[in-house]
Design brief:
It is found in: Membrane. One of its GO terms (cellular component) is membrane. This is Solute carrier family 15 member 2. Helix 3 crosses helix 4, helix 5 crosses helix 6 and helix 7 crosses helix 13. The strands form seven sheets. Strands 10, 13, 14, 19 and 20 form a five-stranded mixed β-sheet that branches. The protein has a four-stranded mixed β-sheet with strand order 5-3-8-9, with no helix packed on it. It is of the alpha+beta class. The chain has 18 helices and 22 strands. It is elongated.
Length: about 725
């Protein structure tokens, strides 16, 4: 057993004492090329899969928006909880190299399971849900587990004296993350929407390509095995910190009455743990307290892939010239803007603020980042208020919606007893004025509707059910007779921007209509076809076949999210048609989402990048991994907040956006107050202080007493906030 362990350690130590081959005479190890390519492929895999995830839940698993949002954020949250597990495995047992390989295999299996679950022919809906959830859990453990290992493993490849090269490596590493994100959020939505398989959007391919990229990432990483420096596991500092805290709590509980009080509760660990470790934990706790308000920022930030994507589905995505963006491609703006904003802020914004004699400390930057994120959601609120103007909301309990089509040869009046919902006469073949709310006395109600045509009154008994929309078609069956046909309507807009279309035939023969790849059938004498979605586009030369003839009609543009009713009539010159718009097309352009992406990305630059910089500057070197774990936990808890609100709030979307903006403003005020009372320290002074303290302890004072342990009050202080 001892030999096996020595063999493993030797394997991990391979290359540690020798210099790795360098790239083209530089100080960059060849091994980092494999690590950067690995990270690019892995990030392509992750963001590509995640880009189409919300629409997959809605269209393939047929979940509603709130459940889809909740599961999306539950998955995101798990992806940021699992890095703790990956760090413990790497530092305590396997080392970074083997941890990346083993968990990457789990990652690949998760992608494969997820892709198989997206194949309609594999099982029923229950099987699809089970495979999808199992795949997502495995992906979360894979991506989260390797997250704390890959970047640190890359840093390990450099010699100690090459600090500048290591710093530039991390910049290249960050660029590879954003490059993978940008490309994947462009490509996978195209694979989903433009490639058709199994009779619909090809989610199996959209998930399969990221799976293939993860396989490539794993192969590339293994290919560089002989070039890597592999450090053995040295014990996880997070585990040691937790043990120290646990011992302090137990010791205080057991001895609080017997021993004198101590200045800090962590001092109760002095019997077992070194004073330096205790002091370092105290410093970390001061930063972790500032982390408490931070999850609210991530609650807003991570909605780009859920609520903002759903908002984009109800917007006009046509940029002209045949260029149409997909709703799940808008997320690429964040990664693109990050690459643009980082140099702009570093070389432009921050120096300009400095010229105005404003001292912009890290905590002030983070507070400003929160405000920018709140402004992003204010912008999203304004967009949402305008977007919903073209949306017909389903009626509430004890209400129905109704619109009337007058297919008579002259105008009619329609009267509902006790209500004046249609007070004005309706002209022949006039576009409906829109849906009108009809109150009901219970779950359903029978209305005797009076129709007046050419001075004659006709009565129709019609039953309406709550929460349902209807179209009432009025036409003549034979001279002097009026027919009322009540049809239930589908009013929920497509999440892909498709248009809905139906046909009514006044022809004396049955008609088969082909629109693109969709087939419609309208029976003779006012038969109504099914309401079927068709992709947005120009439809000219639509074929209409009867038993005796064939006709071509030009429907023109069927626009994003619109609902159309097309009335076909036989005239002497052939088949004529009238296209009516039942529900308005998406008339707010998707470009109006750009301001909210600008605000949220600017907020990310000021909040996220600065937050990591601040955290690292305020913690000793040995505690940086603990703070990294704490930072990732804020992201995880932020997604939990969205999960709770999405499932529990039950409010309109624009109200929810405004709620999140208001909550973040409130949290930013709390954070600013906490930051005001925070005093910056220099962790590097710990070495000097403890070295001096150790020297002093070697010489006892004249009264035989030793110097007291160093405390935070002894640390060199800098400015507040």
């Amino acid at each position: 057993m001892g030999k096996k362990k020595d063999k493993d350690v030797d394997a991990e130590d391979h290359g540690k004492g020798q210099r790795s081959p360098k790239l083209c005479g530089t100080n960059y190890p060849v091994s980092i090329a494999f690590i950067v390519v690995n990270e690019f492929c892995e990030r392509f895999s992750y963001y590509g899969m995640k880009a189409v995830l919300t629409l997959y839940f809605i269209h393939y698993l047929h979940w509603d928006k709130n459940l889809s949002t909740a599961v999306y954020h539950a998955f995101s949250s798990l992806c940021y909880f699992t890095p703790l597990l990956g760090a413990v495995i790497a530092d305590s047992w396997l080392g970074k190299f083997r941890t990346v390989i083993y968990l990457s295999i789990v990652y690949v299996i998760g992608h494969v399971v997820k892709s198989v679950g997206a194949i309609p022919d594999v099982g029923d809906s229950t099987v699809h849900v089970v495979l999808s959830m199992l795949g997502l859990v495995l992906i979360a453990f894979g991506t989260g587990g390797i997250k704390p290992c890959v970047a640190a493993f890359g840093g390990d490849q450099f010699d100690e004296e090459h600090t500048e090269e290591r710093r530039k490596f991390f910049s290249i590493f960050y660029m590879s993350i954003n490059a993978g994100s940008v490309l994947s959020t462009i490509i996978t939505p195209i694979l989903r929407g433009d490639v058709k398989c199994f009779g619909g959007d090809c989610y199996a391919l959209a998930f399969g390509v990221p799976a293939a990229l993860m396989v490539i990432a794993l192969v590339v990483f293994i290919a560089g095995s002989g070039l890597y420096k592999k450090s053995p596991p040295e014990g996880n500092v997070l585990v040691r910190v937790c043990k120290c805290i646990g011992f302090a709590i137990r010791n205080r509980w057991n001895n609080s009455k017997k021993s004198p009080k101590r200045s800090h509760w962590l001092d109760w660990a002095e019997e077992k743990y070194p004073k330096r470790l205790i002091q370092e934990i105290k410093m970390v706790f001061r930063v972790l307290v500032l982390y408490i308000p931070l999850p609210m920022f991530w609650a807003l930030f991570d909605q780009q892939g859920s609520r903002w994507t759903l908002q984009a589905t109800r917007m006009n995505m046509d940029f002209g010239g045949g260029f149409i963006i997909k709703p799940d491609q808008m997320q690429m703006l964040n990664a693109l803007l990050i690459l643009v904003f980082i140099p702009i802020f570093d070389m432009g914004v921050y120096p300009l603020i400095g010229l105005c004699r404003i001292k912009l400390t890290p905590l002030k930057k983070m507070a400003a980042g929160m405000i920018l994120a709140a402004l992003a959601f204010c912008a999203a609120t304004v967009v949402e208020i305008n977007v919903i103007k073209s949306v017909v909301e389903p009626p509430p309990a004890k209400e129905s919606l109704v619109q009337v089509y007058n297919l008579m040869d002259s105008e009619v009046t329609v009267q509902f007893p006790g209500h004046t919902v249609f007070s004005d006469p309706l002209k022949s073949y006039e576009d409906p004025s829109g849906y009108t709310s009809l109150p009901l006395t219970g779950e359903s109600q029978l209305y005797t509707v009076t129709v007046t045509h050419n001075g004659a009154e006709y009565q129709c008994g019609l039953t309406f059910t709550e929460r349902t929309a209807y179209s009432l078609f009025l036409h003549t069956a034979q001279p002097g007779d009026t027919v009322c046909k009540l049809v239930k309507d589908h009013i929920t807009k497509s999440e892909t921007g498709a248009a809905y279309l139906r046909f009514i035939s006044t022809h004396t023969e049955n008609i088969n209509i082909t629109v693109g790849t969709e087939e419609f059938y309208a029976a003779a004498d006012y038969g109504i076809s099914q309401n079927i979605s068709v992709p947005r586009g120009e439809y000219n030369g639509v074929v209409c076949k009867t038993n005796s003839d064939q006709y071509l009609i030009d429907l023109g543009l069927l626009d994003f999210g619109a609902f159309y009713t097309v009335i076909l009539s036989k005239e002497s010159n052939g088949l004529t048609f009238k296209k009516m718009e039942d529900i308005q097309a998406n008339n707010i352009h998707i470009a109006w989402q750009v301001p909210q992406y600008v605000f949220i990305t600017a907020g990310e630059v000021m909040f996220s990048i600065t937050g990591l910089e601040f955290s690292y500057s305020q913690a000793p070197a040995s505690m940086k991994s603990v703070l990294q774990a704490g930072w990732l936990m804020t992201v995880a808890f932020g997604n939990v907040i969205v999960l709770i609100v999405a499932e529990g709030a039950g409010m309109e979307q624009w109200t929810e956006f405004l709620l999140f903006a208001g909550l973040l403003v409130a949290v930013s005020i709390i954070f600013s107050i906490m930051a005001y009372f925070y005093t910056y320290v220099d962790p590097d002074q710990l070495d000097k202080i403890f070295r001096e303290d150790t020297d002093d302890e070697k010489v006892e004072s004249s009264d035989g007493k030793k110097n007291e342990a160093v405390s935070l009050t002894d640390m060199p202080k800098q400015t507040k906030m």
